[in-house]
Amino acid sequence: MRSPWSVLTARGRIFAVLGLVVVAAGILLGYEDVTRIGLVLVALPLLTLLLMPRRTPQVRVLREVQPSRLVPDARGEVRVRFTNVGRRPTRLYLAEEHLDLQLGDRPRFVLPRMAAGEERRFRYAVRSRHRGAFSLGPIVLRQRDPFGLTFMTLQLSSSSEILVLPRVHSLGDGRVRGTSAGSEGEMPQMLALHGEDDVSIRIWREGDELRRVHWPATAHRGELMVRQEERPARRRALLVLDSRAAAYPGTGVRPGYEWAVSALASVARHLAADGWVVHLLTDTTLRDGTTERAVELDAALDALARVQPEQDSRLDRLAAAAAPFTTSGVLVVAAVVAHDEDGLRELASTRQPGSRALAFVIDPARFGGAAQREPEAPLTGVLADSGWRTVVVGPHTDMPRAWAAISGGMRS
Q1: CA-CA distance, 153 to 141, in Å (whole number)?
Q2: How is the chain split among helix, strand and coil, in percent rounded to 5?
């Protein structure tokens, strides 16, 4: 609860102090008229304090962002709708929307009086140079009395979110071949040659229909086997993002990290367009247990829009989570910093013979860590020594060329 003194403006405080001084002077000097003037000066700010509303008006705020998901440097429009859901009319307010500075200046607009049930609409533009999940709100209402003696701020707690997706680059029209290991490699492509009616044989389970029993396989195995009609398996890819805050130079928006996020977003779109099933491995998906679930492209971009460098992120944890995928021949694409040799070796060891693993290796020296050039440079070869196809990248590296360098064996 704000004190009455804090509600007074500079003018109101001057009136109150000056009024007390005039009242004291009038009493000491015996001038009743001077005392009356002093009382008027004191009474005016007190009266405005009593009449100033202290309760937050019952106003509902709804926001609509067009388009609902933005891309960097694209203009979006936020439409704000105020509705008086109370029984009493609202007062005249100056409204200010609180939003992240990266979205632009805070919009201000006059919110006129609204009768019960009345609605007012406003709109303003937003634009961000960087990806991220940015909050909209709360809205702060400001009000002054007609004499400018009091100033009240009230807050409407309603808030929303606007999502700015990572920059996505076209990586060309080439297709990436699968691996030769496991059922996630070239085998799915071979199955696809036979169409959608391919069948697989499995052990009979309670509830299976007898008409699906595969008698030749049953005679061969000595136990009931049934036909299971399935669509051919699809090629799978695991995208791994290194989010160690200590590995990326700089503070705030880190160019190296943004390059890594943009690279994986571009790869996700490229692979999805080619029919791959994509899994996303970040510290966030590791915590919430969603790494094992395949993600649609929109969900992958949303997740990559929200990721941020983390102080407690560890590469060995990501490597441990990636290991079950690599044993089944899943294509691994990583964006990793040449920062810690032990962590890189843990990740490098996850690659299985015959499988494919690709890595964008972020060179911190090129992204502002010049003082680290000597100790970091030898680490760029740790993954390559274990059979990974790697490319060392900097802030000016062309992403399509970097992808072509590591995805080699692309076929049209």
Answers
A1: 6
A2: 35, 25, 40
Please state whether beta strands 331-337 and 236-241 pair in parallel, antiparallel, or not at all (unpaired). Answer: parallel
Positive/negative CA dihedral, 188, 193, 195, 197 = negative
Residue for token digits 């388009």? 67
Picking from 92-96, 116-120, 207-211, 309-313, which range would have the lowest pLDDT averaged per residue? 207-211
Residue 94: phi and psi, rounded to 5, are -100, 115
Beta bridge partners of 243: none
Six token digits for residue 82: 């105020």
Residue pLDDT, tens place only, 302-321:
999 999 999 999 999 999 99
Strand partners, 278: 237, 295
- Compute the distance between CA of residue 124 and CA of residue 136 in angstroms, rounded to an integer: 12
**pTM score, whole prediction:** 0.77
**CB-based burial label for 193 (10 Å; 0-12, 13-18, 19+):** exposed
Q: Catalogue the E-assigned strands of 256-367.
A: 277-281, 331-337, 357-362
Q: Which helix (H) or strand (E) holds 234?
A: none
CA distance 208 to 365: 61
